[in-house]
Design goal:
The strands form 3 sheets. The chain has a 5-stranded antiparallel beta sheet. The chain has a 3-stranded antiparallel beta sheet with strand order 7-3-10. The protein has a two-stranded antiparallel ribbon with strand order 1-2. β5 and β6 form a beta hairpin. The chain contains 3 helices and 10 strands. With 122 residues, it is an alpha+beta fold. The longest helix is centred in the first third of the chain and has 11 residues. It has one domain.
Length: 122
């Protein structure tokens, strides 16, 4: 059973997603592709890069690169319902940046792997 609840309180917005099975047709999950994210950042050289799901940008976005330094998102970059994209310097262009995964429990989806983060640190 899947439950998505979104509430707005006096302190801000919160979202909770519980999923026992992925909704993606082949049973996989969409996760951030850190390698592709690094390639896009190296190519475009933005001051700031955010990752999130265009299907729900305001509640899924997180800064992952700013002023020459990588930042780890506060939530795991894995979903059963959306696709991840990168937005550079607040533009309206989204660069798709996801891949499929079978195991949503891996820590790979929670933080920049060192091999990619080291390429980006100035």
């Amino acid at each position: 059973m899947k439950t998505l609840s979104f509430t707005e309180t006096s302190v801000g917005k919160s979202i909770t997603l519980f999923a026992s099975k992925p909704r993606i047709a082949d049973g996989s999950w969409h996760v951030i592709d850190w390698k592709k994210a690094a390639e896009i950042i190296l190519k475009h050289k933005p001051k700031k890069a955010e990752v999130g799901m265009p299907e729900g940008w305001e509640i899924t976005k997180a800064v992952i690169f700013e002023n020459g330094k990588t930042k780890n998102p506060i939530t795991p970059m894995i979903t059963s319902w959306g696709t991840f994209a990168l937005r550079l310097d607040g533009s309206n262009v989204y660069h798709l940046c996801f891949k499929k995964a079978k195991d949503p429990r891996s820590s790979y989806y929670r933080a920049w792997p060192k091999r990619f983060a080291n390429k980006l640190s100035i």
